[in-house]
## 1
Amino acid sequence: MADTLTRPGLVDRLATIAGARHVVTDPAALAPHLAEGRGLFHGTALCAVAPGTTAEVAAVIALCHAEGVPVTPQGGNTGQCGGAVPMAPGGVVLRTDRLNRIRAVDPLDGTITVEAGCILADIQRAAAEAGAHFPLSLGAEGSCRIGGNLSTNAGGLNVLRYGMARDLTLGLEVVLPDGRVWNGLRALRKDNTGYALRQLFLGAEGTLGVITAAVLKLFPPPRPLITAMVALPDPEAAIALLRRLRGAAGDGLTAFELLPRIALDLGFRHMPGGVEPFARPHPWQVLLEGAGPGVPDAVQAALAQDMAGGGLADAVIAQSGAQAAALWRLREIAAGGHQYQEGAIIKHDIAVPVGRIPDMIRLGTAAALDELPGTRVVAFGHAGDGNLHFNLVQPPGMAPDAFRALTGAMNRRIHDIVTGLGGSISAEHGIGLLKIDELERCRDPLELDLMRRIKAAFDPAGLMNPGKILRPA
Ligand SMILES: Cc1cc2nc3c(=O)[nH]c(=O)nc-3n(C[C@H](O)[C@H](O)[C@H](O)COP(=O)(O)OP(=O)(O)OC[C@H]3O[C@@H](n4cnc5c(N)ncnc54)[C@H](O)[C@@H]3O)c2cc1C
């Protein structure tokens, strides 16, 4: 109430810009926009507004800037670090869901121009309808929005070949923290005209402005395709296989996902639809995919060679689209939120040089067990990119809060190992609220100083998504 009193008429003025039915103040309707999926963070806001055009976004931001009102952009709210949770009292959540137009598809140039609120899966579909392929793909693609993907520099399943969101973006349109619109919607592959401003907004988690539209790269459809799951004795064998496949198929290898036994076992326990892929259980699995002329044959030959040499324990190659989907379903089962049904989880989204993945798993597991015997380590994910989701699941029967109380200590142990291996404490999810302390601890003070200066240059009033990535000065 005090917040509305200090900014009389703000909600009405927002309603004048976006339309009254696109401004939400009712507590029940506002609630989903104040928290994130895992329930780790609960925020506060005066209202949520959903502008329908770039001009409306600009007007909302200009008004908030003039009134000194903090703004938190929110896409699908599937982020894993609390970045879209509004924390400043009296602030506004700016939802992007009405910015949902595909503005243009240009198969010749290999580009698609989309508004920030487009759902990722809709963009994939629009590209496919035009005979092209948009390769950004992740578990939340049915609900995350491209503005959120770009603002977190999302990774996902195809980074090995196509890179992260940053690599897929040619141009951006951004509403700056004072309401001015920067039109950088260029569809150019070559453009050496000074600083690459768009790179600053990619991965900025809404702290430097609101992305309203983007020009994204399209690719030829991946054909022919091979999808396989292989069984391995240990992570060393997985990395040896990766080396062999890269040699055989080059960047025709599009996905290489590492899954430990425990991830499948927990998935089978809690999620329907999973079937053990092999005649007997194996300690490690890799789900891999390759695409392009000659790639399936090259991958099959490499797998046969590894099998003959004893590096592989078993392999299943999908013979149809349905079988490929069933293998990908196993990846989903292994990674799903079902791990929460086992109690509390302490998650890490880390990257190390690919060759150090076995060291990371060995050292990280030892550290977690040293901190608390009985901790269940579920280290899985995009191993081909050096990216692991290093989840620590509480021992059975322990009080979840007692396990959660170890979060700081576990984080420090795991992140120190990551840093020692030359890695990153956030591979693809970002910093948000979750990792501010660890960013400060693990990053070079000079880098932090440069980041603070960039933030101050773009947003001197500190109104764009305050409290995220960096503590307010
Ligand atoms: C099941 C599941 C699987 C996932 N798998 C992956 C994965 O493989 N790889 C991966 O990278 N992530 C993954 N994620 C995390 C999440 O989906 C991504 O971070 C995604 O990019 C977030 O998009 P969003 O639209 O939900 O963004 P939100 O959560 O709404 O926002 C994320 C951040 O971006 C900011 N933001 C949102 N829109 C804008 C905008 N238009 N302009 C400026 N800032 C904006 C927000 O303020 C916030 O800081 C997964 C999540 C789930 C639930």
## 2
Amino acid sequence: MRPGDELGGSTGGNRSLAGSLRTEATPALVVDRDVLIANVVAMAERARSAGVALWPHAKTHKTAQIAALQREHGAAGITVATLAEAEYFAAEGFDDILLAYPPVGDWRLARLTDLARRARVRVVLDDAGVLAGLIEACRAVGAVIGYLWEVDCGTGRLGTAPGEPTATAIAAAPRGPECPFQGLMTFGGHAYAAADDAELDRAAEDERNALAASAEALRGAGIDCPVRSAGTTPTAHRMRTGTDPTITEMRPGNYVFYDATQVALGLIEPPGCALTVLATVIGRPDRRRVILDAGSKALSAERLTPRAAGFGLVLGHPELTVERLYEQHAIAGAPHGSDLQVGDRVRIVPNHACTTANLHRRALVAENDDVVDIWRIAAAGPGG
Ligand SMILES: Cc1ncc(COP(=O)(O)O)c(C=O)c1O
């Protein structure tokens, strides 16, 4: 039986169990517990065999129960993108937090320095003025917050150019005992644009080379660089086994769930995806169209790679392509027809698990089609 097959049948049969994917309201976010645990364990093993510390990016799930699993399996701490995420996880007892986002704005500085009373926080930045603001804010309240400097390895988001430009910027940046320089961070997000495996390999090499060249230039300037943090889910899959002297930490996030993008990139097969959106067929206007109740308010509308067809994978229904999303409707095309009937339920692996989870307030935790728990998705929203 393939995942999703168990939901077949035109009305879901005559079972009416409370806590069943056959009866829960749709659309609903579903986490397959066994697959999730397998993903957490496998990435922990990757980090161990590469000899790097695992700092998983928790923006993917924003869920204390999943972060607890990651910690149980060896995560040294967690990475977050927003202060709301950092505050939520600190309140849940996670006290080693990397905020991989520059602390720009008085409101961010106020909340960050306040957070530093409750957790060991490091922050990422790439600008001397931002660092000066952080030092001043820490000095005012007696906080200590270390920082990683971001190097751009080719993504073209934040970060200074690798090598000498980065070392020069760090050497010229203000200093203060309140904000010790702890090392470098890079983000190989361009891996998602890889057209093939060779380009994906190159993105992982870009991360490694950017860190190596910058650490080398810093050494030349007499600056020690103990932390060298890299990683996305695709590049984490390219981490070398055996101790890698270039990288000391990695920060994959998406891997807890994986998604249709990672399937398209060749990292995982659909059964390895732990996150799905449970949807109901609400219309069959013709042979070639299946209308589902999971639109862009339930499934992320992103197309992170042109290698993914449509807006998600309908498990157990390879005949379908999710071609269009309205807010509350998905239009799935079936060029050769489909047996699905109005009332049937399906599970859709979204293109982007992280932004899909961010659309929901809770996740049904499933074993097969039994709901065994419900987890809150905390700190969901645009940021802040
Ligand atoms: C700074 C940073 N590190 C790590 C990650 C995790 O990457 P992925 O979602 O591919 O696991 C992200 C994702 O956006 C990120 O922005």
